[in-house]
Please model this.
Amino acid sequence: MSAEADLKRELRQRLIAARQAIPIQIWQQKSEEICTQIERSTQFQTAQVVLSYLSFRQEVDLTQLYYRHPDKSWGLPRCVGRDLVWHQVDSGQLEQSLSIGKFGILEPLPTLPSIDLETVDLILIPTVACDRQGYRLGYGGGFFDRFLPTQIGYKVGITFNDFYLEHLPVESWDIPMQSIVTESGLAHLDSYDSAILPKKL
Model:
């Protein structure tokens, strides 16, 4: 195991414990603030097909976005083998569309329609932490690491302010996000369209 992998493992354990220690009311409040920041972004406003996730271990909860924007096509992931399979969910029937997967994470039912990944405009990506260069720290299973290089959607890492760090250990396969959003705003990490930012961190 590389030195970077060791650093990631230690950092992951510490940060997940810190995140799960956030009081529920504060976690809900910060999650709502992040939903608002996402809604203000041009990338979200113009997106028709959005891939997202269901909160686990007190990740940022984006559920309110699904309910408030039923006009968008929402895709949620299901773990199949070593990969993520994406299903379209009806936000008006979200609870009936989910079951517990093998990792104890809520997942869409396998009978739901698949998302055509060629149509994806935006990917809201869960993280344990992000850094100022756009790199994310995940859970170590590699599901998003294997998925992200193949996709054309605009990649946004989702994290709380306290987990938006200066630097993370990086390995050769890590894919940087194009933006990071926290409760303070959206930090755009590309130069070509930085003028459309709603707010800089």
User: Anything to note?
Assistant: The two ends are 34 Å apart (CA to CA). Helices lie at 3-20, 24-40, 42-46, 63-68, 143-147. Residues 3-196 form a domain with the Rossmann fold fold (CATH 3.40.50.10420). Residues 122 and 154 are 5 Å apart (CA to CA).
